[in-house]
């Protein structure tokens, strides 16, 4: 039995979830009072969000609804917050109420954005292909026969035809 074929938007969904989780985890973390991450925290966050995006892209087709996106983004926000708190941060692993509200709002907004992007993917790709392909142009059926120019002096034409172009060059 062969594995189920992934949806056409699976890569789009996984990439969008990974990128949005990373960007909005940093933004919600900063808005909630956590500050901007240092390089070690940012590296750990990017690895975590890449994993969340890859797992989201491989989900079966029955998990492609908006609730599944909310779940994937929620898990991603939690994993992103945890990745940001593993380094030298001044707050605890359990987020404060403003930070929790910022993470929740970011999760809901991102789920709506990704769901709409998935819904519009097919029509936008169709329009893009039509625009790039352009309207079909009719093929011209009129052909013109090539008539070589007749030399004014037939002797010159005979001499041109009799000159051999083969063989090595002769030194002069």
From TrEMBL:
UniProt keywords, alphabetically: Membrane, Transmembrane, Transmembrane helix
Domain of life: Bacteria
Parts of the chain that traverse the membrane: 40-59, 96-115
Name of the protein in its database record: Integral membrane protein
Species of provenance: Rhodococcus jostii
């Amino acid at each position: 039995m062969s594995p189920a074929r992934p949806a056409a938007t699976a890569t789009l969904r996984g990439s969008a979830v990974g990128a949005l989780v990373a960007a909005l985890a940093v933004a919600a973390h900063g808005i909630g009072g956590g500050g901007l991450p240092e390089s070690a925290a940012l590296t750990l966050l990017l690895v975590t969000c890449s994993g969340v995006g890859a797992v989201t892209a491989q989900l079966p087709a029955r998990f492609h609804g908006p609730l599944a996106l909310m779940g994937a983004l929620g898990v991603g926000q939690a994993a992103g917050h945890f990745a940001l708190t593993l380094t030298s941060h001044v707050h605890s692993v359990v987020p404060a109420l403003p930070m929790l509200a910022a993470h929740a709002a970011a999760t809901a907004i991102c789920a709506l954005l990704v769901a709409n992007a998935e819904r519009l993917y097919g029509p936008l790709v169709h329009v893009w292909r039509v625009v790039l392909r352009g309207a079909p142009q009719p093929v011209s059926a009129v052909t013109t026969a090539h008539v070589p120019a007749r030399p004014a002096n037939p002797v010159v034409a005979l001499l041109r035809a009799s000159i051999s172009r083969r063989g090595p060059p002769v030194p002069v």
